[in-house]
Amino acid sequence: MQVCRVASRALRTQHNPITLVSRSLATSVPKNPSAFAQRLATGPSLEDFVTDNIDPEETGPSKVTLGNTSQPRLPSYLKTKIPTGPSYTSIKKDLRGLGLHTVCEEARCPNIGDCWGGGKKAATATIMLMGDTYPHEPENTAEAISRWGLGYIVLTSVDRDDLVDGGAAHFASTIAKIKQKAPSILVEALTGDFQGDLSCVERVAKSGLDVYAHNVETVEALTPFVRDRRAKFHQSLAVLAHAKKSGVKITKTSIMLGVGETEEQVMDTLKALRANSVDVVTFGQYMRPTKRHMKVSRYVEPAEFEMWKQRAEEMGFAYVASGPLVRSSYKAGEYFIENMLRNGSQDKGALKTATLLSEDAGQTTRSSGLTKE
């Protein structure tokens, strides 16, 4: 037995050098670096994150800057307060109870506190239609809006290209039910382009709404890079033009600045909008929602937004809202209703818009009265 143990030990000691040699040979063959290793080698090092302007005599900890310092920093005028107030709380509670969703929340809009907390009959909310489940959405939307006592409501939706009509019938049904429950409320529909199907545009336009909105988002040259690949600048113009032809008195669109546009391109866009009888335009700063989205080209100064407001008004737009935090439906109720109540205003565009909306409201009230009789 002892002899066997000695023999086995001898075999093991003889085998070990072979193992060592094989390991040595294996490690002597250089490996091709992986793609990840190459990215690490060529990527930024710790030194890239340390600022250069550190005093050698400084005894405190080294100052480091995290993130990509080549990107423009968020200006102070784009920072907002945390939303609060009874109107804000009431609207949020009803939304959860009725299973409704708003763009205001899902897009993390910085103006949610201002819009939801607006003055009496002037608060504004943007309801998102046609989500995952929506069999009773028209009824629930009408019920919620009648509770809130809002003066202005914006209806929009996710893209529903899977539906034959792109959701046009659902839009029309929701608008009709809202008008039944609250005839005096102003309703804006912010729709997609329905893939160019103008019959769908017409169906929504003739549903009893007050404002038809469709956003061109940016200038023509940047449309393929900023918007969905299926979106076309001239197709959007056709949507707005057909809504006007279908009897809508107020058409509206929105332009984002800070995506790489030039002054000449913005002017050409405004001319194209006026040529298609668009009444209302809003300008706002593009904000990058996540790192997966397009980067901000630049942050536009408030003075430049004011400049575009003046130019658009001079071109004949009935109403213009322009500012870093302005969005398509930003405080829409307060803007429109304030203008409607403003007597002797020097703003001819505002008076024009107010007159058109007042006429629509009067016709709605008279027609609803005839129906009841």
Structure commentary:
By secondary structure, the chain is α/β, with parallel strands linked by helices. The protein has a single domain (79-366), classed as pyruvate-formate lyase- activating enzyme (Alpha-Beta Horseshoe). Helix content is 45%, strand content 11%. It contains 14 helices and eight strands. The chain has helices at residues 2-28, 35-42, 86-98, 103-106, 112-116, 137-148, 168-181, 198-205, 223-226, 233-245, 263-275, 302-314, 332-341, 348-372, and strands spanning 101-102, 124-129, 152-157, 186-190, 211-213, 250-257, 280-285, 319-322. Strands 1-2-3-4-5-6-7-8 form an eight-stranded mixed sheet, with helices on both faces. Helix 3 (86-98) runs antiparallel to helix 6 (137-148), helix 7 (168-181) packs parallel to helix 8 and helix 8 crosses helix 10 (233-245). It is globular, with a radius of gyration of 30 Å. It starts with a helix and ends with a helix. The model is unreliable at 17-29, 46-67, 340-348 and 360-373 (pLDDT under 50). This is Lipoyl synthase, mitochondrial. Residues 90-318 form the Radical SAM core domain. GO terms for molecular function: 4 iron, 4 sulfur cluster binding; lipoate synthase activity; metal ion binding. Pathway: Protein modification; protein lipoylation via endogenous pathway; protein N(6)-(lipoyl)lysine from octanoyl-[acyl-carrier-protein]: step 2/2. It is found in: Mitochondrion.
